[in-house]
Design a protein that fits this description.
Length: 566
């Protein structure tokens, strides 16, 4: 093929690929423009995850008639005049790429009015080509409406996930900026539902209240830069006390000079500050604002500006870590352990078995040392003789070929999982709660609950909408306690990435995990025997539903060798 220059539309679509990946990237760019325009109010409307429709309107400075077309030219910006300005930049945008990129991959309408002009301007573009450009009335500010996103770039369209998934990504962007700019009022409507409405009163805690609910907002700890250090790096914001945590990292938001950024290293710095305070697999919530001289940070290393480079990385990480740690240490909160696992302990104290009809053992030495597992035909485990429990974590048992060490939580998880998976939906007994409990959700979590509602109902969870982003749990599966059900639902809504087909499987695993005996629970002898017996009857006794081993074996032959070694 001969070498030739690409046409303008093709160049624009290729370039757009760098900045505009999915609906949430469009919303991010438009929000940043509104904030740069000094808006005090930004309203976002999306339909079908943004694929069908996106609208962002603001009350910012607007664009004058004579510059409206220019704004859609590549590399046209009002925010930068020379390269050096980048190092002192206070605006979020500066590349002059967003509007032309968005216009290249959608049909776009803009209605804008500058504070300095009498009337406003209307412009419509289709695939980057001008359709209409005329004067039209509007109060100061800008509205941009998009339809047919990516319809000319089918490859992009294919790469998108479900509308719900895309909507939750948009939510994440909007709520992140709502946290970064508490002085701006943000609203978000998804398919006609108002899912976010921040007060815009300048108080971060009030923005947190709107997004994460009252319980979280009232308990978050203030972050302040260590006052003993005269530092050029200022840290402010809020972080969660250890009793509030999430099962994913989505609720930790970092802003550098008010720019939303992603950083694995900062994430790590914060997680380290929590070390010893959070359980494995649990992550804190937080809004962490890092303010430093613009000359000490390079924002121009990534087309979407999602990553930044600090001239002194370790100084920034240390400052963040110290600020978080001192917030945690200064006001040491009392963990809510009692909510987590009281039920089994009580039952254990009453010496009642947790698995139904198990006969109580006499507890004599004789019985303790007799074989407890009768071999079944289907068995993949050999005949085991219970020896006892160690550390409140593991059961020890003797088999014909060695010592078996069984992780009690993982083993019980396997048992529960198979029990739950073998039940038909009609068998899933439910229990009505005398005191229904409430879930306060953020928009992303709400989308997840909506997605899982029918599966949850089949499993015995009756959940009804009780207010805006507030749900009431009326009944839960039989065998659950309310705190167990609450913990399960919190974990479920915190992982919004599942495809619909995975939801059932995931729910079963969560139900198994949350009703299994926990690490650290002391088991009585009958309970230990029952556990071994039931484990032996499972289809896959060697692994928990997450794939981790339930049993570790030490062979007698290995022991013999070890003892003979001189
Ligand atoms: P950048 O933000 O990098 O300057 P954009 O392509 O996003 O580039 O926008 C181009 C220009 O259009 C901006 O520099 C700004 O002057 C103007 N503009 C875009 N959106 C708005 C808005 N919502 N309000 C006022 N001006 C805007
Ligand atoms: Mg911009």
């Amino acid at each position: 093929m001969p070498i030739k220059l690409l046409d303008k539309a093709t160049i624009a679509r290729i370039a757009a690929g760098e900045v505009i990946e999915r609906p949430s990237s469009v919303v991010k760019e438009l929000l940043e423009n509104s904030l740069d325009a000094g808006a005090k109010r930004v309203d976002v409307v999306i339909r079908e995850g943004g694929i069908g429709y996106i609208e962002v309107s603001d009350d910012g400075c607007g664009i004058v008639f004579s510059e409206v077309l220019l704004a859609f030219e590549r590399h046209a910006t009002s925010k930068l005049s020379s390269f050096e300005d980048i190092y002192a930049i206070s605006s979020l945008g500066f590349r002059g790429e967003a509007l032309p990129s968005i216009a290249a991959v959608a049909d776009l309408e803009m209605l804008t009015a500058a504070r300095t002009e009498e009337s406003g301007t209307y412009l419509s573009l289709s695939g980057g080509e001008m359709v209409k450009h005329t004067r039209m009335a509007r109060s100061p500010g800008t509205t941009i409406k998009l339809t047919r996103l990516f319809s000319r770039v089918p490859a992009r369209l294919k790469f998108l996930k479900t509308p719900q998934h895309e909507a939750s990504k948009v939510s994440e962007v909007v709520l992140s900026y709502a946290l970064a700019y508490p002085e701006v009022k943000f609203t978000l409507s998804i398919d006609g539902r108002n899912t976010l409405n921040t007060p815009g009163n300048g108080k971060l805690r009030d923005a947190v209240l709107e997004i994460y609910g009252n319980d979280v907002a009232s308990k978050m700890l203030d972050l302040e830069t260590d006052s003993y250090r005269s530092s050029a790096i200022n840290i402010s914001g809020l972080v969660s006390p250890p009793e509030i945590s999430r099962s994913n990292r989505n609720s930790l938001h970092f802003f550098v000079n008010r720019r939303l950024i992603q950083s694995r290293a900062l994430q790590k710095a914060v997680e380290q500050a929590y070390s010893g305070l959070l359980m494995v697999g649990r992550y804190p919530l937080g809004v962490i604002n890092i303010c430093l001289d613009g000359a000490l940070v390079d924002v121009n290393i990534h087309p979407t500006k999602a990553e930044v480079k600090f001239s002194d990385e370790s100084a920034v990480f240390t400052s963040v870590q110290r600020a978080v740690r001192s917030a945690l240490v200064e006001k040491p909160p009392t963990p809510h352990i009692a909510e987590e696992a009281p039920v089994y302990r009580q039952e254990s104290a009453r010496q009642e078995p947790i698995w139904g009809e198990t006969p109580k053992p006499a507890g004599t030495v004789q019985q303790y040392f007799s074989p407890v597992i009768q071999s079944a035909k289907t068995s993949v485990l050999p005949l085991l003789r219970l020896v006892g429990q160690i550390g409140g974590l593991y059961l020890l048992a003797e088999g014909p070929d060695g010592l078996y060490i069984i992780d009690q939580h993982a083993a019980h998880e396997r048992i529960r999982y198979e029990e739950i998976a073998s039940q038909t939906p009609s068998e899933n007994a439910r229990q009505s709660l005398l005191a229904p409990f409430i879930l306060e959700l953020n928009p992303v979590q709400e989308a997840m609950i909506e997605k899982c509602k029918s599966e949850l109902d089949l499993m015995g969870f009756e959940i009804e909408e009780f207010g805006r982003r507030v749900y009431r749990v009326q009944s839960i599966p039989a065998g659950f306690t309310a705190p167990q059900a609450k913990a399960l639902l919190s974990e479920l809504v915190d992982n919004p990435k599942d495809a619909p087909a995975e939801i059932k499987e995931r729910l079963q695993r969560l139900m198994a995990c949350h009703t299994a005996v926990r690490a650290g629970q002391v088991l009585n002898e009958a309970e230990m025997r029952e556990l071994l017996l039931k484990l032996e009857k499972t289809a896959v006794p060697g692994h928990c539903p997450h794939g981790r081993p339930t049993i570790v074996k030490i062979d007698f032959s290995q022991l013999e060798k070890d003892f003979k070694r001189t």
